[in-house]
User: Fold this.
Amino acid sequence: MRRLEIAVLGLSAVLGSGMLMPSAQAATFVYVGSSDSQDVTVLELKANGDLTPIATTAVPGPEKRGGSLPMNVSPDKKRLYVGLRNEPYAAVTFNIDNKTGKLTQAGVGPLADSMAYVATDRTGKFLLSASYGGNKVTVNPIGANGVVQAATQTVATQPNAHCIVTDPTNKYVLHTSLGGDLIYQQKFDAKNGKLTPNDPPTVSVKAKAGARHIVFSPNKKFVYLVSELDGSIYVFPWDARTGTLKKETQVTTSLPKGFDGKPWAADIHLTPDGKFLYASERTSSTLAAFAVDTKTGALTAIDSFPTEKQPRAFSIDPTGRVLLAVGELSNSMTSYSIDKKSGRLTKLKEYPVGKKPNWVEIVKF
Assistant:
């Protein structure tokens, strides 16, 4: 009984100090997908922001490597899906050990094309994919064993489909066409995985902006889009009733001050509380940071922070305290602490990962 009292008092003291301290059973694992080495680096994220390497897991696939290694974690956190972008196009399913974070292969399923983006719906029963070169999105059922089955629907898009996500209710889907400067709005039947056009079926952005990645705000009221070719960030109010985007209320930029190169924006994420937004820009190798007005969705620029060389992807941990960014040309990952009041990033440490890292997933148990 005395030991229990000491443990409770110790935990209360830590929480009272404002420090993050997981329970004895909790753990947070990081998965970094690297395309040139075709592997996934597994690390454990500690409460103080340190990362401990656990394993490097090879992804079985063609000898010729793809341009990226898109990944997604199932809603129940039991599986990691990895897309292979060279023939034979496939999605590899790995089971996640919730105690060690290690991956074991569950199986391999077919994809209809080279997919730049893969994501499950919110039930975990379907894998949605977007093909940049194939100009299409697809829906693949996922078997009870977690292995992806053959596509049951293929939807043709304008050039360069680049992202596909379900809305928080799982009733609607948004996906982008970088070459068509469009966001597609579709209804989603989660029982059979069927996509049908919404009304209106698309929303346009500025010509040659290059609509790339989208993210929903945690309060489900806004959608943010980062455009690859001009570095712009769009703020759209979200109509949850109709599953459509309202007219954009703001267009700002992810480019750092004084930028005079060719824009090449990549990824976009919000902190879990929705108070800060970040976007990566590859030409300048920077992360743009913004404060978010959670009532209006408006963005106020904070600063741009130097990061890994050519940062295609980054991710924010579920506590909103740590941001992890990888560089395709640096083969490493940098961790940053996020100031909870200002949103500013402070570099913590660099970690070696695979060759040409371009995807980061974080799982907290």
Remarks:
- The first helix runs from residue 2 to 16.
- Confidence is low (pLDDT under 50) at residues 1-24.
- Helices lie at 2-16.
- The first strand starts at residue 28 and ends at 34.
